[in-house]
Amino acid sequence: MKRSNIALAAFSMTTLLLAACGSDNKNHHEGSAPTYLSEIPYDANKTQLPAEAAESIGAKSINVMTYNMVDVQGKIAKATAMVMFPKVAPPADGYRTVVWGHGTVGVGDDCAPSQNVLHPRFSILAQTLLKAGYVIIAPDYEGLGTKGIHPYLNLKSESLSAIAAVKAVKDRYGFQLQGDWMSIGQSQGGHAVLGIAEFANKDSSYKGTVAGAPASSLGKIIQSYIDPQFNLDDEGKPKAHGLNRLDENLQQVRYAVANGILTEEQGQEKINEIAYGYAELLAYAAFTTVGAKAQHKNYDYKNIFTANAAEIAELAYGRTGDDGACLSYPAPNSGNGLQEQFRAGIVDYLSNPTHKLADFGIDLEKFKKDPIVQAFLEETQPATNATESQVIKTPVFIIQGEKDQAVLPVVTQGLFANMKTNALKFFPQADYADRYKLTIVPNATHTQAIVCENANAVDFIQEHMSAGTGIVLTDADKDASQNSHCTGKS
């Protein structure tokens, strides 16, 4: 929305949804409510002074805004977002805005970024954007930090939470903002910002997105690890031993230990690595099934898990769905994180040398036959460009780590190719497909890639939406390639 339109005192939820969802009557909510509700200073859940928190990333202020959005049930619900203003003086026509989509944290309210200390990887990007003079909006997403279950990886919910947050900030700050905005996110946030690019298609003030390791094709990723039919030989056929990828790796480690190639200690280290990676996947799966309860109240979120893993999956939900375990916690509470709980369970299970991972975690047959899960995986796939109205028309920059084991490079490459193919299919005379860009970051893992590409991500934002402040960032301001969150070396 341009500055000339910001003078409207408030936006109704009906207006919000008409802008976000076009003429799809299924998305309209009868009645209206203000978008912006209130704001308080961010204090990392009372662990920091507001001024100290703001200064840590070079912000003038960080507030936690409460606003209205429409949830997955089509009802008005409260949501929260951090709003960060730069120290830089505003351009004559107002600040431009960048929305940050955070990665997976969990589904419990305590996991919400606005309830925790700023993540160091996000802080790297935030410092750069604030120094250039952008306002940053960082939504928690529906159900994180507010009442209700967080519908994890629900593309529409993530998108509408961000779009509503932008409208609420415009409502609150009016002429201090110029109106143009872009988005950038990592992992779940990469998934979210591709959704934003789709749902904001009709918003002329939306200028594009940067998606780091965007979560997609979760079903394919799960099966690539646990389905023997996805463990292929050089001829593209399932391997003769009939093991899935994880159990094949496990068998190789056990063989190496039995034959003295690895010591017992070295073998256990390898098993710990296998367990850690699989635990991450199981945590994502648990958050997904718990999140499905936001739409399907009676859904048994433990259905796709083996009995031994279902006990751990329960921790993702907690007692109410609002108090579930987070993906991870800082020391001294790191053992309480869902991924660590799964890792410990896997290691304990594998202490019996006859046990296989095919019998712990996700029950493959139940997973493939669960109608709610399978429908969810199809409905929430981002950037499909599946219909003319869904084709993303703004610039997109996708950043993918070569060594990413959570969002596999081949999956992201497939998503990118499909985006371009369908954009050309529906708009052969337009240049939408030429606006899409993908970079594979050599040797980078799931969390490293977007940090390593910080300079290029910021350049992309500045290219398509200048901050308008006249500030020229130096290479030193932008480059994070030597940061430990890129290199993996402390």
Please provide a written account of the structure.
By secondary structure, this protein is α/β, with parallel strands linked by helices. The chain has two domains: 3-217 and 382-487, 3-Layer(aba) Sandwich (Rossmann fold), CATH 3.40.50.1820; 221-378, no CATH class. The chain contains 17 helices and nine strands. It has helices spanning 13-21, 50-55, 120-132, 155-173, 188-199, 218-226, 245-258, 264-292, 307-317, 338-350, 364-369, 371-379, 409-426, 449-452, 454-464, 475-478, 484-487; strands at 36-41, 59-70, 76-86, 95-101, 135-139, 177-186, 206-212, 396-401, 436-441. It has a nine-stranded mixed sheet, with helices on both faces. Helix 4 packs across helix 5 and helix 9 (307-317) packs antiparallel against helix 10.
Helix fraction? 25-40%
Straight-line distance between termini: 43 Å
Structural class: alpha/beta
Count every beta strand, where a strand is a DSSP E run of 2 or more residues. 9
Total individual domains: 2
Side-by-side strand order of the widest sheet: 1-2-3-5-4-6-7-8-9
Low-confidence sequence ranges: 1-31
Question: Which CATH first-tier class of the largest domain would you pick?
Answer: Alpha Beta
CATH superfamily of the largest domain: Alpha/Beta hydrolase fold, catalytic domain
CATH A-level architecture of the largest domain: 3-Layer(aba) Sandwich
Strand content: 5-15%
Shape: globular
Topology as a string of helices (H) and strands (E): HEHEEEHEHEHEHHHHHHHEHEHHHH
Rg (C-alpha, Å): 22 Å
| Average of per-residue pLDDT values | 92
CATH-defined fold name of the largest domain: Rossmann fold
